[in-house]
Design brief:
single chain, about 450 residues, alpha/beta, Gyrase A, domain 2, Four Helix Bundle (Hemerythrin (Met), subunit A), Rossmann fold, 3 domains, six-stranded mixed beta sheet, 12 strands, flat
Length: about 450
């Protein structure tokens, strides 16, 4: 496939809206489009970043629209481009695309506009991936971090490491090329390699945060029957999603719903109450609840603060949940409105240490619970102001490859391994970093990456 022929695609979803955008790009695309525009000479003569109002014609008027003209190289793709802003009706969009195909435009492949931007040097691969990540962002926080990556935050970190490694590689190569002038040691390479390892390790560690922001995390609400799990579930959702009843065993199966928790996409599960039972359907619900807890990133364990079991008992149950799930457990002392009002004076108003006191009736303690959950599912609080956070599996794998090569370099320098072997590891590290930004790439890598984009981007 060539990457300069005229292409076209809808850049907005097919659906009814006030406006839609159809993008055209490629060598000769303005000349190709001009005969179908009711002002062909104006379109041909238009300078870059010019907006023309007119009609698109195909024996009859297809639509009244505006054509935004971009001239190479000052366009998203680096080529001559036109964006047709038309009425947002699927019939209109399809009529325009059909006309463009007859005029000689090829239907754009998924991500082809961004691929052309990369090939034209408008973006590196980290920025190209950030385009897709920005579109797929599920929360405000992930959107902001994707924008940081689009502005080059990850590339800047990678290039800074590469800069230091190039200096180390140059020092090694000099000693290899001029052994007769060898002073006995390569000057201070270990410190530079250590710094590169540290910087890459910190960047790689952000993947855990990026992945959770990208994919979301499962959180289960667990506890005895009638502890108020469904009430808390509804409170966190801010809607009556789960049935609330004083009858024990009302929830027979888990219920799930997606929410945003302080910038983190969360799938919240209301599970069946944990208790001994011989009832077949309830037993199956408890079994499924235990499966949910086993796969959860965090478990909210509820104790009925109005009528709690003995301290020995709830401590035993809390530890059992921790062992059963393997996740971070957030203990919640529930129904504190009843405790504080004195409905259960024998219990007292004190919330045990380590528990978050919450009332699903008054909402008291909800903010504290949300913060405790955020810390449980996204413990890297120090990354709140960190601009460079990766969420790409490809970038993570390449950082790990570079780190493995650099650790081999470090070991080699400590053990006086021959410099020609150290030079090989250095080049492997530099190659991995080059693949992250796209300086080193293959058609297979590019095809695999851009095929995941939506058409028209």
């Amino acid at each position: 496939m060539t990457y300069d022929d005229p292409i076209a695609a809808a850049a907005t979803p097919f659906g009814r809206s006030a406006l839609a955008i159809v993008r055209c790009s490629g060598e000769g695309c303005i000349e190709l489009l001009a005969p179908a525009f009711n002002r062909p000479d104006a379109l041909r003569a238009a300078k870059g970043h010019t907006v023309l109002y007119g009609r698109l014609l195909d024996r009859d008027v297809v639509d009244e629209l505006t054509a935004i003209v971009y001239r190479a190289p000052k366009s998203y793709t680096g080529e001559d481009s036109v964006e047709l802003v038309c009425h947002g009706n699927p019939v209109t969009i399809e009529a325009i695309l059909s006309l463009l195909r007859r005029l000689g435009f090829r239907a754009a492949e998924p991500g082809e506009f961004t691929l052309r931007a990369f090939l034209a040097g408008k973006l590196d691969l980290t920025q190209a991936e950030a385009v897709a990540e920005l579109i797929e962002s599920r929360t405000q926080r992930s959107r902001v971090l994707a924008l940081h990556r689009l502005s080059g935050s990850v590339a800047q970190r990678i290039n800074a490491v590469k800069h230091h490694l190039v200096d180390v590689s140059a020092a090694v190569e000099i000693h290899l090329d001029y052994p007769e002038e060898d002073s006995g040691e390569v000057e201070a390479p270990i410190a530079a390699v250590e710094a590169a390892i540290s910087d890459l390790a910190r960047l790689g560690a952000t993947y855990a945060t990026g992945k959770r922001l990208r994919d979301g995390v499962p959180v289960a609400i667990a506890g005895r029957t009638n502890a108020g799990k469904s009430s808390l579930f509804n409170l966190l959702l801010r809607e009556d999603r789960s049935i609330v009843s004083e009858v024990h065993g009302t929830t027979r199966d888990y219920i799930e719903q997606g929410i945003e928790l302080n910038g983190v996409p969360v799938t919240l599960y209301d599970t069946a109450g944990l208790r001994e039972t011989v009832e077949q359907i309830e037993s199956e619900g408890i079994r499924r609840s235990e499966q949910i807890m086993a796969n959860a990133a965090a478990v909210i364990y509820l104790v009925d603060g109005a009528e709690p079991p003995s301290e020995d008992r709830w401590r035993y149950e809390l530890e059992a949940v921790r062992q059963r799930s393997g996740a971070t457990v957030v203990p919640v002392w529930h129904k504190i409105d009843l405790v504080i009002e004195g409905a259960q004076p024998s219990v007292g108003a004190a919330v045990p240490e380590g528990f978050v006191g919450v009332s699903s009736v008054t909402g008291e303690g909800l903010d504290r619970l949300r913060e405790a959950l955020r810390e449980a599912v996204l413990p890297d609080a120090g990354l709140e102001s960190e601009a460079a956070v990766i969420e790409s599996d490809r970038q993570k794998e390449l950082i790990e490859r570079a780190l493995a090569a650099l650790r081999s370099v470090r070991a080699g320098l400590h053990d006086d391994v021959p410099l020609d072997l150290i030079a090989v590891d250095l080049q492997d590290a530099l190659s991995a970093l080059g693949e992250i930004t796209g300086e080193v790439s293959s058609d297979d890598i590019l095809d695999a990456m851009f095929s995941k984009f939506c058409v028209g981007k």
